[in-house]
């Protein structure tokens, strides 16, 4: 198996954490678009947004997606990667897309515990629990549209990884 795997989902869903463990289990290279962009630009997400607005950040993000997509690579995307139709189509065509799904309350709890504000500047200016409700209401359909597989991101880390491995194995024997 060499197809690129893309993790999509909201902030705090576990794309980076689960993605990194899954890449290790598969012997895949791991790339996180948020980290890749921050290293390339030598700026945090918050700095990019302050200088160029969300539009500038989204442009950079779409370019990063194209740059990092290679065989035997797992790409953990940023929570808003699915906003552009072009990105959703690209990921679906280039590989297998996994949507890590979790309710707003779980996401908000994780983000309150590990805010990482430099990578996660506010999207709406609202308190985090309200923001996640609003973001999921607007994006759920887009995550679903991008995804080949929807996985439960609320399970303990190792269980999420195992369930994704099972789904990928089923895909390769088809
Ligand atoms: N299945 C899980 N169970 C418990 N905690 C988790 C799980 N997945 C992730 N976490 C925790 O939630 C926090 C956010 O996870 P992570 O950074 O992987 O999310 P993300 O989807 O990459 O978010 P972003 O879109 O901001 O990059 C981390 O501190 C991580 O340890
Ligand atoms: O949900 C979002 O729109 C974002 C999620 C993060 O991964 C970063 O890509 C950035 O903070 C934007
Ligand atoms: Mg991440």
TrEMBL record:
One of its GO terms (biological process) is amino acid biosynthetic process. The keyword Cell inner membrane does not apply. Its cofactor is Mg(2+). ATP binds at residues 12-17, 120. It catalyses: shikimate + ATP = 3-phosphoshikimate + ADP + H(+). It is an enzyme of class 2 (transferase). The keyword Magnesium applies. Binds 1 Mg(2+) ion per subunit. Its EC number is 2.7.1.71. It is found in: Cytoplasm. Mg(2+) binds at residues 16, 32. One of its GO terms (cellular component) is cytosol. It holds the Pfam family SKI. Substrate binds at residues 34, 58, 79, 139. PROSITE patterns: SHIKIMATE_KINASE (PS01128). Monomer. Catalyzes the specific phosphorylation of the 3-hydroxyl group of shikimic acid using ATP as a cosubstrate. Belongs to the shikimate kinase family. AroL subfamily. The LID domain closes over the active site upon ATP binding. This is Shikimate kinase 2. The lineage of its organism: Bacteria, Pseudomonadati, Pseudomonadota, Gammaproteobacteria, Enterobacterales.
């Amino acid at each position: 198996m060499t197809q690129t795997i893309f993790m999509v989902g909201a902030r705090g869903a576990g794309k980076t954490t689960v993605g990194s463990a899954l890449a290790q289990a598969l012997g895949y290279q791991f790339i996180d678009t948020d980290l890749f962009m921050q290293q390339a630009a030598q700026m945090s997400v918050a700095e990019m947004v302050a200088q160029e607005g969300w539009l500038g950040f989204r442009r950079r993000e779409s370019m990063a997606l194209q740059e990092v997509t290679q065989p035997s690579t797992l790409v953990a995307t940023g929570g808003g990667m699915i906003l552009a139709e072009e990105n959703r189509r690209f990921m679906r065509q280039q590989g297998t897309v996994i949507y890590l799904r979790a309710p707003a309350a779980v996401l908000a709890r994780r983000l309150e515990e590990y805010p990482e504000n430099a990578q996660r500047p506010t999207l709406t200016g609202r308190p985090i629990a309200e923001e996640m409700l609003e973001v999921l209401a607007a994006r759920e359909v887009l995550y679903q549209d991008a995804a080949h597989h929807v996985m439960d991101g609320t399970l303990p880390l190792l269980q999420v990884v195992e369930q994704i491995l099972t789904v990928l194995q089923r895909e390769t024997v088809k």
